Known about the structure:
Helix content: 40-55%
Distance between the termini: 7 Å
Shape: elongated
Radius of gyration: 22 Å
Structural class: alpha+beta
Strand order of the largest sheet: 4-6-7-9-10
Order of helices and strands: HEHHEEHHEHEEEHEEHEHH
Number of helices: 10
Largest sheet: 5 strands, mixed
Amino acid sequence: MVLAVLPLDCASQFAIDWLEYKVLSSEYSIASVAELQRIWDTRRNTEEDDFEGADTDAELFLQTVSTEITTRITQLGNAYPFELSENGETLSLKSDLSPGGYIYLFCLLLSHPKKGVVLNGKYLPKITNAIRDLFQACSTLAAAGIVKGHAYSFGFPRPDSTGFLEKLRIVYGKFGEGKVVDAIPKGASKQPKDEQIDVIAWKERTDGAAGKHYVLGQVASGDNWPGKTIKGAGITRFHGTWFANPQIASQPLAALFIPFCVVPDEGDSTQDRLHILSLEFGDVYYRHVLPLLAQQGIEHATHSPDCVVERTADIAKISAWVNGEIQILRKKAA
């Protein structure tokens, strides 16, 4: 067994992650949704004094679970890699996964790198810095899906091995606004890496003028993401430090890309939580929306050869890693 005790006292997002892991660890790639209710009933009968959900109706619990599954299916479309049976009793892995489906599974694996409410520690995904860099690829593709335009992977280390100023000149030469400084300004870092800007994306206007749909994004695949934001001062510093006259006129939108679900506090909705997060981080792209956007970014790159969309080839690496981890997971679960 590779799964922790079903986290019935946690948010429904974690219960569904647990169920999705159960599907992945199954020899036949299927799991019973009804089993969640059976486990809930067993815990209530044996741990009533300590079980925080003891007073909760079992049917209400199962309804909450079903709603979360339906939400993922609705929001992600064919980028959701699982499918619910017609009677709603089983969840299974699709036989033919879309690029977005692989990116969803990649995000699911990144979401649980440690022993916790979903995994008991017998199996843990092997997440190296190189694997985390692939999430920057997912985010770059998602940015392309958002703007339906150019999307560059700017976070350090860059796959093309370009230096900081060198990459800036490449990106903003294409952008067509602002002049990158000739040398590192006094007082700035002598060895700049990415200045917290991981993704740069925009959509050109038909008249070629300023006023582009312009996104500057930060990518966070670790659990320290709540401490990261480039909104406001971060973007102002980036533009003010690294560009001379003429300055960039298009107004950037801050974005945060994370592989996790957004989990609201009890009594709040996901929309309530995103409202507050957006005030701090700008636009937040998380597991319920990012895989489909990344898939749309791949499609955009395929049908718009004049647009620069970096890291499209990395979907093969992502798919291979996910398939390899599923095989390891199943061996550990056997």
